[in-house]
Design brief:
The complex is a heterotrimer of chains A (543), B (333) and C (418). With 543 residues, chain A is of the alpha/beta class. Chain A is built from 19 helices and 20 strands. In chain A, helix 3 packs across helix 6, helix 6 crosses helix 17 and helix 7 packs parallel to helix 15. Classes of the chains: A alpha/beta (543), B alpha/beta (333), C alpha/beta (418).
Chain lengths: 543, 333, 418
């Protein structure tokens, strides 16, 4: 039947009216750099692995970590997680407990025996890696995945470097370290222990290496001269921690132990001393708590365990029963200055934890290589020393000395070594624009407080080397992963698809994200304003 | 409550969709097969809250009614921007008669469907605040008191927008409109005037009354769905910002709606048979100023602290009256 | 079946037999009895299925009918006077949307001053609203026109207003032949709407139309009424075949064929006129009458043919286009365009004033002598009018016209005299 002219219309006929011509700005989908990724020294794509974890696909999440870092279970424990310090969620409630989820994923991998396969073809190139610390192991892993034949020479009796000899086992259980190293070795990496390289070019020539990565760490303890009648009562932190691993009997520290220094190593030694039965473990530091390089949470843990700290003190001398220490005060610039006031404390042992130097002898005769004044090795932005084909990383090059930075060096060096071996140059992809908190629309995220990891009882913490911090169970880990805001990257929440008043967005289906229908988009900007994670940008239309 | 509120704490819980939620817990708007009852090509201004609110409401009603839906529409922006000859943006059977009779026309449609034994087809009447609270109020009240089987949805943008932003009885105190110009210490719209149609609707003791806001899609859809489960006269008033009429950025439509609700100025609640059965509590109370400052219609308020104080008092009263905050939170603020 | 019934009741019977599916009721004198009776029939189940809706205003009454008609239900309502004006917006809308609603108008004056009695100012105010307007001469015709109205409305998708004089017809007890349900069913098939609000075939009804097509829309509305000029006589013929009597059509004549003077009128006054014409014929005068049954569409051609042979035409009507004169007369003059037939315009019976045979006889006699002025008000009390005009000229604050006139002619004047 004929419908009346003009006053009755066919449904949906408005599609003929292309309102896109109204637009002065157009929305575009972008991927922005999440602050966690930006902060990760190992270059992990944290947001991406959380994305998989949110869905409960832990193996996929773990594999995403493994693209950048071969030691998730270690990182989840030992990393000082700068990702969490920069997490946008901290401005809502608390940061996502990223390291706890990473640890959960790493532990899942160890429990289930997940392995990584080398899919690259053999390059026929051989690479020598010197040092089986986090940097060397990381480099070896990435080089092996790239198809190179890797041999690690480790001077010590056990692999792991500072992961074993610097970090006490109550923070990093050894089975975890062993498991993750074994997985790297299982890729076909050759690990030679108790093998010290004296002459790099000679070794390379003898064994036919095409490139070398040096990562011997910084194991030489710094000391200050303290007058004492009995030098045997003065130890250094590196030796104490090393002896804990290599000797059958733990070092004799006595009932009253003083640790001199304010870094994480000082804290580790003090906590170790407590566990070894010291009634008193006292940290003496010449500046204030705020100025301590040790992380706050480490200090908190230590003090919970009964470690005592004397701030603004220096040790001036030692006698039979103890030390004379001088009070300090901060000058206008924040530097400690002696006050001339002295006090004494009784102690059996002094452990110096004043930092470590690199044993640079291996590089001293290497043509082209140069050692800086402060005892570290100079490398280029490609991690190569002045000597072609020889690269260096980890604690021995200028940078922050952490396990994660070291792992990052290993990866970065491996990328450049791979390019070097193939006669090319590695250029990292340009970084996306940072996803600032201001770009987010956080109304869409409901309140969800951070999950707290379980802690061991105080008594057990003071008497055993059991791991202090427990892991998350699956439901906690899932919850925690789901606290991620997905800063700067579409997580397919359908907001743009929903909030467009002009129905000008096509939903492409799971995993395929969305597409604008520019024929109809009027450019109102609602999609960009309501995108919870800041993954839409309005750009001026060329008119 | 016969519908489930989304409560699971996880990424983007309040977003339109969420790949982590069960399909049933996502909104209608998240689905690939949503009806798009109000489709592309309509001529609403950029960022129009009403266009969005209408699609949200009607799509939700379409799902609830298994696409068996007829809508009547009052004269106004919604009518004009969707159906200028020769193009219609609607995908449902839809009729526009007059400014003041959408409720009555819907009564007629419902009566016809009943007499034809086609009661499976559900009827919605819709209009703006002018067509609802003013010129259409007689027909609306009549439809209510007869308890006709109609869901009336009012898209409240607080003035006559289609005719050029004149005051309606839904215009809030202080707001500048073309017929309420602020002058010196005198506010725009006078305080103490206007009417609260949801409360008046409740006084008819009809089965269902609710207020909703375009920014809270889950809540809006739940309310439409609830209303569609019931029969008899039902009323939902949806807060829909008007960028043009309010002097706001088109991209701020949702933000303004959110702040209106979270400041306490636009309480969201549900009532059944004259009794409030549910109140949407404020997660984080927002400052009234934050809401006002985004809209030029309230610009003069900031030069006159007593006006600002008056608006704050209205928000405070709403919060008390409807219990929008837990008692303790109320004190803390 | 022949029944002695009130006009409203007879009409209610007829409407019920037309099987309306939605009836909207709002009280206003003098149509109220019709919807009361219909309400009772729905309640008792005699009329079923049917939704009887007590609405809150005439505006709502027609609006509800608009909705029900658009959703495919045969829809009916009734009103009068102020009520028709109150629904005016919807009156235009119903025709614009092409909805075949049938509405009874119990013709009644429009205030102020408020007046509940009969004239035709109300329906005449809606003459251009796009509805077909039929005027009943008697209650029998009111019954018959309602039945035809549904048929015409639904064939053309246009609303039809059946006008019957308030009180004179609505409240008068007359003998009326009430048709049988079988007859009505045979005449009036089930409603098949031209378009309907249906999810199975969704349409947008009631679009906004701008200058680019509005003229065409209006032209098509006019065209539809032109079609009705052909349709209305056909429907009347079909009706005659089934019901066996003449009713409806565009116009009807009474002793007009050889008449030098033809009175043109519409509505119930034709009955009185026939008696007067009979008397004048007996006295040897050549006079007849033509009743307009359809005022919209206006049967220009049919009327022209009827009046062409006459020497003069007197248009008698119960409404006034204030500032011009006769509403119907103006239309009749269009029909007489080009004919050398003078058209006198007479206004009478306003607000229920009785139209007496004596007055009509006097009027027609004057008309036949061509001594009638162009616009004449039947039985106008010139003295009262003059006094008020004088007062107004004397003082700007002369008070209420109605009150002043009551003082002159009503109780106040009587009291003064005594």
């Amino acid at each position: 039947m004929k419908t009346p002219f003009a006053i009755t219309l066919d449904v949906g006929s408005s599609l003929l009216n292309k309102t896109g011509s109204w637009r002065t700005e157009r929305p575009v989908y972008v991927d922005r750099l999440p602050p966690c990724n930006n902060a990760c020294p190992a270059g992990e794509n944290i947001q991406q692995w959380l994305f998989h974890a949110e869905e409960g696909d832990y193996e996929q999440a773990w594999r995403e970590i493994m693209r950048n870092n071969p030691m998730p279970a270690i990182m989840g424990r030992a990393c000082y997680h700068p990702c969490e310090s920069s997490c946008n969620r901290a401005q809502l409630d608390q940061a996502v407990n990223i390291h706890a989820v990473e640890r959960f994923l790493g532990d899942q991998a160890l429990r289930h025996g997940w392995q990584v396969e080398v899919s690259a073809q053999s390059s026929g190139k051989r690479v020598l890696v010197i040092g089986a610390g986090p940097s060397g192991l990381s480099a070896a892993y990435h080089l092996a995945l790239a198809g190179h034949d890797v041999v690690i020479h480790e001077a010590g009796p056990l692999p792991g470097g500072m992961m074993r000899f610097g970090i006490p086992k109550y923070r990093l259980p050894r089975d975890v370290v062993d498991g993750e190293i074994q997985r790297i070795v299982d890729l076909g990496v050759t690990l030679r222990l108790n093998t010290k390289v004296e002459d790099i070019p000679a070794t390379m020539q003898d064994e036919g290496y095409d490139a070398c990565f040096v990562a011997i760490g910084a194991h030489v303890a710094k000391r200050v001269d303290i007058p004492t009648p009995d030098a045997s009562r003065i130890l250094d932190a590196v030796s104490v921690l090393r002896d804990m691993e290599t000797e059958s009997e733990p070092p004799m520290l006595g009932r009253r132990v003083v640790v001199y220094g304010g870094g994480n190593t000082a804290v580790d030694v003090a906590r170790t001393a407590k566990r070894l039965g010291a009634a008193e473990a006292v940290i003496v530091y010449r500046r204030t708590r705020d100025q301590m390089p040790a992380h706050d949470f480490e200090m908190d843990d230590a003090m919970e365990e009964g470690v005592v700290v004397n701030w603004l003190r220096t040790i001036t001398s030692m006698d039979d029963t103890g030390f004379t220490i001088e009070k300090m005060e901060l000058d206008e610039d924040g530097w400690p200055q002696p006050t001339g006031e002295f006090e004494t404390i009784e102690a059996d042992t002094l452990v110096m934890a004043l930092g470590q130097n690199v044993d640079t002898s291996i590089l001293e005769n290497l043509p082209g290589a140069s050692v800086k004044k402060d005892g570290v090795v100079e490398v280029g932005s490609d991690m190569m020393t002045g000597h072609p084909g020889i690269f260096a990383g980890g604690d021995m090059v200028p940078s922050e000395r952490t396990v994660t930075v070291a792992a990052g060096h290993g990866k970065k060096a491996a990328r450049h070594i791979d390019a070097y071996l193939r006669g090319g140059k590695y250029t990292p992809a340009p970084k996306h624009e940072l996803a600032d908190h201001g770009l987010l629309n956080t109304w869409y995220y409901t309140d969800a407080e951070q999950t707290v990891q379980p802690l061991l009882d105080d008594i057990r913490r003071q008497t055993t080397f059991e791991e202090v911090t427990g892991g998350l169970d699956e439901s906690n880990a899932l919850y925690e992963a789901r606290r991620c805001l997905s800063c700067g990257n579409c997580f397919e929440c359908d907001n743009c698809y929903g909030v467009c008043p002009d129905n000008s967005i096509t939903k492409l289906g799971p995993g395929k994200r969305f597409e604008f229908k520019y024929d109809y988009c009027k450019g109102c900007g609602l999609c960009a304003a309501e995108c919870p994670c800041g993954a839409i940008k309005m750009v001026p239309e060329e008119i | 409550m016969s519908y489930q509120q989304v409560k699971f704490y996880q990424t983007g819980t309040l977003t339109v969709g969420n790949r982590l939620l069960d399909e049933q817990q996502r909104t209608v708007q998240a689905t690939l097969d949503r009806s798009n009852s109000l489709d592309s090509g309509h001529r609403a201004c950029q960022g129009c809250g009403e266009a969005l609110g209408a699609r949200y409401a009607i799509d939700a009603a379409m799902r609830a009614a298994d696409n068996q839906l007829v809508a009547t529409n009052a004269t106004g922006c919604l009518e004009v921007f969707t159906t200028p000859y020769p193009e219609s943006a609607w995908r449902i059977p839809w009729i526009h008669s007059l400014f003041g009779n959408a409720a009555a026309v819907a009564t007629g449609v419902a009566a016809a469907l009943k007499v034809k034994g086609r009661e499976g087809i559900r009827v919605i009447a819709q209009g703006g605040d002018g067509g609802t609270t003013d010129i259409g109020f007689g027909c609306l009240s009549g439809m209510f008191e007869r308890n006709d089987d109609v869901l009336y949805i009012c898209y409240d943008n607080q003035a006559y927008m289609n005719t050029g932003v004149q005051r309606s009885s839904a215009t809030p105190g202080a707001a500048r409109t073309a017929t309420t110009q602020p002058l010196g210490p005198q506010p725009g719209a006078e305080f103490g005037k206007g009417k609260n149609v949801p409360l008046i609707a409740m006084a008819h003791m009809i089965p269902y009354v609710a207020t909703a806001s375009v920014h809270d899609l889950h809540d809006l859809e739940a309310k439409v769905t609830r209303a569609m489960l019931l029969h008899g006269a039902r009323y939902i008033q949806v807060f829909v910002p008007c960028p043009l009429g309010w002097g706001a950025r088109p991209a701020d439509t949702m933000k303004i709606a959110r702040l209106a609700v979270e400041s306490g100025l636009y309480p969201l609640f549900e009532a059944e048979h004259g009794e409030i059965v549910n109140v949407t509590r404020l997660r984080h109370r927002a400052d009234v100023e934050e809401y006002l400052t985004l809209q030029r219609r309230f610009a003069h308020v900031f030069k006159h602290p007593e006006q600002l104080q008056h608006i704050r008092a209205i928000a405070d009263q709403n919060i008390r009256k409807f219990g929008l905050l837990d008692a303790q939170e109320g004190v803390a603020r | 079946m022949l029944k002695q019934v009130e006009g409203s009741q007879a009409v209610a019977e007829a409407i019920a037999m037309c099987r309306p599916e939605v009836i909207c009721a709002y009280p206003i004198t003098p149509q109220t009895h019709i919807v009361e009776d219909l309400g009772a029939k729905v309640k008792s189940g005699a009329l079923a299925p049917c939704e009887f809706i007590n609405v809150e205003s005439e505006f709502a009454a027609l609006s509800v009918a608009i909705g029900s008609s658009a959703a495919g239900a045969r829809s009916y309502t009734a009103t009068a006077s102020q009520g028709l004006l109150f629904m005016a917006e919807a009156v235009y809308n119903a025709s614009g949307l092409g909805l075949p609603i049938v509405m009874t108008v119990g013709n009644r004056a429009i205030g102020a001053p408020i007046n509940i009695w009969n004239d035709q100012s109300d329906s005449m105010s809606m003459r251009d609203a796009g509805w077909i307007q039929l005027y009943a001469e008697s209650n029998q015709e009111a019954v018959d026109l309602h039945i035809q109205a549904f048929r015409i409305a639904e064939l053309l998708s246009v609303p039809v207003m059946v006008c019957m004089d308030g009180f004179i017809l609505t409240h008068a007890y007359e003998r009326v032949e009430i048709p049988s349900q079988e007859q009505v069913d045979a005449f009036l098939p089930a409603f098949e709407p031209r378009q309907v609000l249906d999810p199975a075939n969704p349409k947008t009804i009631g679009a906004m139309v701008g200058p680019e097509a509005f003229t065409e829309v209006r032209y098509l509305a006019h065209h539809k009424q032109m079609q009705a000029l052909d349709l209305i006589p056909n429907v009347a013929e079909e009706f005659r075949q089934i019901f066996g009597r003449d009713a409806g059509g565009l116009v009807s004549g009474y002793r007009h064929q050889d008449a030098e003077t033809i009175v043109v009128t519409l509505g119930s006054v034709i009955g009185t006129m026939q008696e007067v014409i009979d008397e004048l014929r007996q006295a040897g005068h050549s006079i007849g009458a033509v009743a307009l049954r359809s005022f919209r569409p206006f049967p220009l051609e049919a009327l022209r043919q009827l009046i062409a042979p006459a020497k003069r035409v007197v248009v008698f009507e119960k409404c006034l286009a204030v500032g011009l004169g006769g509403v119907v007369a103006s239309n009749v003059r269009m029909a007489s365009h080009g004919l050398s037939v003078p058209v006198y315009s007479v206004i009478g019976g306003l607000g229920g004033r009785p139209i007496t045979r004596a007055s009509l006889t006097k009027l027609f006699t004057e008309a036949m002598q061509d001594s009638l002025e162009g616009l004449h008000f039947l039985d106008l009390n010139q003295e009262v009018v003059n006094r008020q005009i004088e007062r107004e000229e004397g003082s700007r604050r002369s008070g209420s016209v109605a009150e002043n006139i009551l003082r002159d002619i009503g109780l106040v004047a009587t009291a003064k005299v005594s």
